[in-house]
Write a structure and sequence with these properties.
heterodimer, A: 461 residues, alpha/beta, TIM Barrel, two-stranded antiparallel ribbon, 53% helix, globular, B: 256 residues, Methyltransferase, Methionine Synthase (B12-binding Domains), Chain A, domain 1, Rossmann fold, 5-stranded parallel β-sheet, 5 strands, transferase (chain A), MeOH-cob_MeTrfase_bsu (chain A), methyltransferase activity (chain A), methyltransferase (chain A), Methanol--corrinoid methyltransferase (chain A)
Chain lengths: 461, 256
């Protein structure tokens, strides 16, 4: 499949963006339309550790999980649901395991759909297994196994195909621990995008062959690593100003999936998704206050602002007082969606969107930049040089810096440390060339020397 | 676009802004540097994470008659302690520690190259990422913080088979083993490591942490000590050196 870069925005203004609706809705699964006028809960789960011991145990675990979720959805009267299965490594490394799990889950979902008419769809996300003990191996034998996994799940019931791809992570892990913003730009914006171009053309071909949806990626391995290292307000591991610069750079990287044939919905943990929706018009999944089962979050409400699917990120399957964990968290998600859908039905959706956004906008620099009005501006900076993967990533980083500086002049409070890190990042970005070839060449020399596990051949370099 | 806006102080509190210390990191560090000018120059270079300046300072000190191996404890580790103390106090952030640790390690290698003697570390720690798990940034941070605190680290890397962990513990005889994992299914390997260590009568404290790892899980095996943050690793090692038993470590570090 060809690469078609975005050079203009899907929306004429930020105010046109809303939850539950997008420019290019996606029909999938059993009667579901994502982004077609309503939000839908997307429930994500992890098997108990002991379930990984054999294929039979895993299949049984996912049957229990699926049945529990579907039962709870009909018990409380929710009209639609999406299930996302993020593979444990055994399911991707043994492609038939993933296929059998997908088949088992879809069989149960079909039974519920037939009996109750509940709209539903199944997303499967294989693990990005393209690495060995010491190095990323993005284009070798593990790539072949990964594609076999996509074939198996697409042939056996998965409606949507996703991935959390790892391109650039070896350089990113080195850079983020050293406040090295040009390194982050090279890792995410350049290496990450190059791998996205490669892998998403392949995934989109598999999806097309099987008549399922090529859904999209998330920069979990890089921007979320920065977000998690950043942590809460009092954590001392990374300036949140750097975490949001990494996030801004991740938007053009994750956008590359849609430039290579994916159509959405983008994956839940892609906090860059509001920017991507503004550019591409694809539906997006998001997670926030209802993913505290997986991680704390300083953007719990703001990320609901433009979601089409609303997710819990992941919860280990186990018993709670109110049922199993997937039933409890799924029910919370579905009630959130009912509220958003009620707002839409009563014409109050923009008010609710703005309440979601304002309740977090000043909590942290990350939420400030991702507030939909500012996210839209980052999108504009990306499409301005949409055909140059380096320049558009640099534009995104600089625009996020500019937005934060405006915030400091207004109501966004920051520590001296955060301001200092922001000033250092700005200086590093301003010192960079505008020429992609020069930047790539300089970075190749530097990181081949400094990062022992960086293999340029992973990126066709 | 919305015309709504709020006074955020009615909605949220930026506690990090409210509690930020008045003193800058550089000012705080200046109060902790050694007085001896030769040592001080090296300590400042460590704080700044400047490898070349560290080597230059070491060359000056050696030229002035200082013993290269003694400089590791007297200058490099003193400079690094300034960094780790300020990190523990919340005055500086992790990337500063990482850059300082890089500079310190370069300095140690330089000192070793200038002498026939071998330095003595505080103790040895074996670090690994669970079998089946390739997410290793947490282990990288743990290893750096241990080195920054004067421990020798044997880094087994990621996706380490249980057999290899056991063999490394037998061969290296560390004071502590660490294990990190991101995924619930891979952390199960920690139980196997624990059982094999006990079978071999290797009662080494096994500090575990990472994304999906939690205190409840680590509490289910005898040697396990849950570390909620990477910064707990050197603190646990310090307690072991001071004579704490595994049950005492569990009592102190299992906070929930």
């Amino acid at each position: 499949m060809a690469i078609n870069r975005y050079t203009k925005m899907a929306y004429d203004s930020a105010d046109d963006m809303i939850f539950g609706k997008c420019k290019h809705p996606v029909k999938t699964g059993l009667g579901l339309e994502i982004g077609g006028g309503y939000t839908t809960p997307e429930i994500n789960y992890a098997p108990r550790p002991e379930a990984g011991a054999s294929k039979e145990k895993l299949v049984k675990e996912y049957q229990r999980i699926t049945t529990d979720i579907m039962n709870r959805m009909v018990q409380v009267g929710f009209p639609a649901v999406v299930l996302e299965t993020e593979h444990v490594e055994q399911m991707t490394n043994n492609p038939t395991w993933g296929g059998e799990v997908a088949h088992a889950q879809k069989t149960i979902m079909e039974e519920f759909h037939d009996e109750y008419g509940i709209k539903c769809a199944l997303r499967h996300t294989p693990g990005d297994i393209r690495e060995d003990r010491d190095y990323l191996d993005l284009r070798g034998d593990k790539f072949t196994v990964l594609m076999e996994s996509f074939e198996e799940i697409a042939a056996n019931g998965a409606d949507m195909l996703s991935l959390e791809s790892m391109g650039g992570k070896e350089v990113f892990d080195y850079s983020i621990l050293r406040n090295d913003v040009p390194g982050m730009l090279y890792a995410i914006g350049c290496l990450g995008t190059m791998d996205m171009d490669f892998i998403w053309q392949e995934i989109s071909s598999v999806a097309k062959k099987h008549g399922v949806v090529s859904a999209g990626d998330t920069d979990c391995s890089e921007a979320n690593t920065a977000m998690f290292i950043g942590g809460g307000l009092l954590d001392k591991n990374l300036a949140h100003t750097l975490a949001i610069i990494a996030r801004a750079i991740s938007a053009p990287r994750s956008l590359a999936a849609y430039e290579a044939g994916a159509v959405g919905p983008g994956k839940d943990c892609g906090y860059e998704n509001t920017i991507i929706k503004a550019i591409s018009g694809v539906p997006i999944s998001q997670e926030g206050k209802t993913s505290t089962c997986a991680h704390s979050d300083v953007m719990g409400n703001v990320v609901m602002q433009c979601c089409d699917l609303w997710s819990n990120e992941s919860v280990e399957y186990h018993a709670e007082f109110g049922g199993t964990s997937v039933q409890c968290w799924g029910e919370s998600l579905a009630y959130d969606c009912a509220l958003m859908n009620t707002a839409t039905a009563t014409g109050q959706e923009k008010t609710l969107r703005d309440l979601f956004m304002l309740s977090d906008k000043y909590r942290d620099p990350q939420g400030y930049v991702l507030a939909y009005d500012n996210a839209y501006r980052v999108g504009e900076a990306i499409v301005k040089d949409g055909n140059d993967i380096y320049l558009r990533a640099k534009n995104a980083a600089l625009k996020s810096v500019e937005i934060m500086e405006e915030g400091i002049a207004g109501k966004l409070e920051m520590t001296k440390f955060e301001k200092g890190a922001l000033a250092d990042a700005k200086a590093a970005l301003m010192a960079l060339t505008d020429d992609q070839d020069t930047f790539m060449s300089d970075c190749m020399t530097k990181y081949k020397e400094e990062v022992k596990v960086f293999l340029p051949e992973n990126y066709g370099l | 676009m919305t015309s709504l806006d709020i006074d955020p102080s009615d909605i949220l509190v930026r506690y990090n802004v409210k509690l930020e210390k008045a003193m800058t990191p550089k000012d705080a560090a200046a109060e902790l540097y050694p007085k001896d000018e030769l040592y001080r120059q090296i300590a400042v270079a460590i704080f700044d994470g400047e490898e070349d300046d560290v080597i230059e300072g070491l060359e000056k000190a050696i030229a002035a008659g200082k013993n290269p191996i003694a400089l590791i404890d007297d200058a490099l580790m003193v400079g690094m302690k300034v960094v780790t103390d300020l990190y523990d106090q919340g005055t500086i952030f992790l990337p500063n520690v990482m850059m300082s640790a890089d500079a310190m390690l370069d300095g140690i290698e330089f000192c070793k190259s200038q002498s026939d003697e071998a330095p003595v570390s505080k103790g040895k720690v074996v670090c690994h990422v669970a079998e089946g798990d390739v997410h290793d940034i947490g282990k990288t941070i743990v290893a750096a913080l241990l080195r920054a605190n004067g421990y020798e680290v044997v880094d087994l890397g990621r996706d380490v088979p249980v057999d290899e962990v056991i063999e490394a513990v037998k061969a290296e005889k560390p004071l502590m083993l660490t294990g990190t994992a991101l995924m619930t299914t891979t952390m199960y390997a920690f139980k196997a490591v624990n059982d094999r260590l006990l079978e071999a009568s290797l009662n080494v404290p096994f500090a575990c942490g990472g994304g999906a790892v939690n205190q409840d899980f680590v509490s289910t095996y005898d040697l396990g000590i849950y570390g909620e943050e990477a910064a707990d690793a050197p603190k646990i090692a310090d307690k072991i050196l001071a004579g704490s038993s595994i049950s005492a470590l569990k009592e102190e570090f299992h906070k929930h």
